[in-house]
Design a protein that fits this description.
OB fold (Dihydrolipoamide Acetyltransferase, E2P); five-stranded mixed beta sheet; 36% helix; alpha+beta; 5 domains; single chain; D-amino Acid Aminotransferase, Chain A, domain 1; 24 helices; Helix Hairpins
Length: 664
């Protein structure tokens, strides 16, 4: 009886894997989706009843398992090399001459250069055992669980081979990419910039079940290592891979001369935007493996292949309007509204025009015929205006003098291209402002990150920073995923934040150019919010490290009526707006420190405060001007840099001695 069940399960697995191969690899389905799902449900039921018969190649094992804690490193025994890029026909013939000069009579294979993420797939005795990213070519990341979710990755080969490692390109088909972004837009999630970004982001999910929801596919294009069988050339190896059940790179072709390769490259270039997948070039490879061995590789690239990169596609269309949006940092960003045009495989309706200087330099006007391309094949931008098409009906564009979001006057100081809204209560900046105000370096309100800030703003509970201090536990508990316990915890954290002091309050306001250090210097120089509000430009610039731009930002911040209202409400709520003006000890005056790694007992914030209390300065990067690098456990690249520059290193004990035995 048990043997009958086992045999039936084996038959179901074989049938389902065959149907999946027909559908996902050959694009030639044999049965309906309903019939496939019916058989899959039957197998799932049997596996639930008999888990001892579950095998690694079962189609049920593709759906994604437990949450990953991180990605382990994988060292590639055969380096996953990148290809040398060429950009002209002349460079292709130069490549051909170098091959012939080495005594090779070349036969080439020309294939699509798929725009995706390069991965390695490893098989032992025909079973898929490990998959990894390319990484830097020598060390990648183990993403086996995520690659298992891709239906075009065979979990078992059609015949058993002792060992096989292949290289392929994971990509998101154009249609699937559009559907994914439509779904994300409906759910209010940020959109992916392009299919390559979407594929890369999907493969590096720590939750494989998320990857499983993304309709990724793969084209395999190279044998890295193989035991038990062999192929003498690239085209023959692709046929072997196809026999083994892989979805190999499509429509590859062999040519005996470079002129034929050039013609094929031109044909592929004309297909851009018409294929069901994105390409960013064509690859020309030497077919003969023995000839490849003879040519070898440079330190960076193989000498037997090149990648021809197509120039960005440029098309003309009409500029219908320029609209201005406010970014989260308050910058007013202009966007050109275009007559729809097909560009690099997608319909483009808008393009960046960067800032007021860009518009002025190119003399862009509403109604112009403009030439558009995708910068880096991602973001549409205007290259130039076709002045020959102007008929006098075009209109010059003027930047708004008030913020389109809040109606407050904007700052255009003439010193930079960006125009900004400096209103602290601007709705367009509100979520970012709230999250920053609550961050650890500012008011340190645990539980109020960007996600929670967005939730409170969307619910209408917060319209300004001051509203935080009016929140009640019942209001918070009524929100989704909050509850009474988390509400009480958040209310307590908000209450505790009232005593953080002027320096952290100033930093929390997110005043342009004012970081943690300058906020503390201003707080200690003036002692109270009232005194700081009354400070003149001259008084502000007299504070150490406070320059003219910083002083102007502070004055602009206090000039807003919303700021005055907000400060009054914060004071009424009991928020401390004073700073103890301490006299610093000068033991470390003029000394610059960098902290790296985890210290045994001190947090970075505590170590930084102790150093600054003694007159020292803490920076984020190591340079020749660094006096000491304080090193803790798991120190990274800063330690390496310090060793290269021979900067003195301190552990926590040595730092405490230098501080004169100061305790936390």
């Amino acid at each position: 009886m048990a043997s009958d069940v086992k045999r039936h399960m084996e038959a179901l697995r074989t049938t389902l894997n065959h149907y999946a191969y027909q559908y996902y690899v050959l694009d030639d389905p044999e049965v309906s989706d309903y019939r496939y799902d019916e058989l899959l449900r039957e197998l799932e039921t049997l596996e639930a009843q008999h888990p001892e018969y579950i095998t690694p190649d079962s189609p049920t094992q593709r759906v994604g398992g437990k949450l990953l804690e991180g990605f382990a490193q994988v060292r590639h025994e055969v380096p996953m090399e990148s290809l040398q890029d060429v950009f002209s026909v002349e460079e292709l013939f130069d490549f051909d001459e170098r091959v012939r000069a080495a005594g090779v009579q070349p036969v080439y294979v020309v294939e699509y250069k798929i725009d995706g993420l390069s991965v390695s797939l490893e098989y032992e005795n025909g079973l898929f055992v490990r998959g990894s990213t390319r990484g830097d070519g020598r060390v990648g990341e183990d993403i086996t669980a995520n690659l298992r979710t891709i239906r075009a990755v065979p979990l078992r080969l059609t015949r058993s081979i002792p060992y096989l490692e292949v290289r392929g390109e994971v990509y998101l088909p154009e249609k699937a990419f559009s559907q994914l972004n439509e779904r994300r837009q409906q759910e209010g999630q940020p959109l992916f910039a392009n299919p390559r970004n979407a594929a890369a982001g999907s493969l590096r999910q720590l939750d494989p079940s998320v990857t499983a929801t993304r309709p990724l596919s793969i084209f395999v294009f190279n044998i890295q290592r193989m035991e038990g069988e062999r192929a003498d050339g690239h085209a023959a190896s692709l046929e072997l891979l196809r026999e083994l059940g892989f979805r190999v790179i499509p429509d590859y072709r062999r040519f005996e001369g470079m002129q034929s390769c050039v013609e094929r490259v031109a044909q592929i270039g004309e297909m851009r935007g018409k294929l069901p997948f994105e390409i960013d070039g064509a690859v020309i490879k030497l077919d003969d493996f023995a000839a490849r061995e003879r040519l070898g590789s440079t330190a960076k690239f193989p000498r037997w292949a090149v990648a021809y990169k197509y120039p960005p596609e440029v098309k003309s269309t009409r500029l219908l309007d320029i609209v201005v949006n406010v970014g989260r940092t308050g910058v007013l960003t202009p966007t050109a509204v275009l007559e729809p045009v097909q560009l690099s495989g997608s319909t483009v309706r808008a393009a960046t025009v960067h800032n007021k200087d860009f518009i002025a330099q190119k003399d862009i006007r509403i109604g112009d015929v403009v030439r558009v391309r995708k910068a880096g094949e991602i973001i549409p931008e205007i290259v130039e205006v076709d002045f020959s098409k102007r008929d006098g009906s075009e209109r010059e564009f003027s930047f708004p003098t008030v913020c389109p979001s809040c109606g407050e006057p904007v700052l255009d100081d003439g010193q930079e291209a960006a125009v900004r809204c400096t209103n602290p209560d601007c709705p367009a900046q509100l979520v970012r402002s709230i999250a920053h105000f609550c961050s650890r370096g500012a008011m340190d309100i645990e539980g109020m990150g960007e996600q929670s800030s967005e939730q409170f703003v969307s619910a209408g509970l917060i319209a300004s920073i001051a509203d935080l201090y009016d929140l009640s536990a019942p209001q918070i508990a009524a929100l989704e995923r909050k509850g009474e316990k988390s509400a009480a915890k958040l209310v307590a954290a908000i209450e505790q934040s009232k005593g953080r002091g002027l320096a952290r309050l100033l930093y929390g306001f997110g005043i342009r150019h004012i970081g943690e250090r300058s906020a503390r210097q201003l707080a200690e120089a003036f002692g109270s919010m009232d005194r700081l509000r009354q400070a003149t430009f001259e008084e502000l610039t007299a504070v150490p490290d406070v320059g003219e731009e910083m002083a102007q930002s502070v004055l602009a911040f206090f000039s807003h009526r919303q700021t005055q209202s907000q400060l009054a409400r914060l004071a009424a709520a009991g928020v401390d707006m004073t700073q103890e003006q301490t006299v610093k000890e000068a033991a470390l005056l003029g000394k610059t420190f960098v902290l790296t790694g985890t210290l045994p007992t001190l947090t970075r914030e505590q170590a930084k405060a102790l150093i600054e209390q003694k007159g020292g300065k803490v920076t984020g990067s190591v340079s020749k001007k660094t006096s000491y690098v304080v090193v803790g456990e798991d120190a990274g690249s800063k330690l390496v840099r310090a060793q290269e520059l021979q900067i003195p290193l301190l552990d926590e004990a040595a730092l405490m001695n230098l501080l004169g035995g100061t305790q936390k």
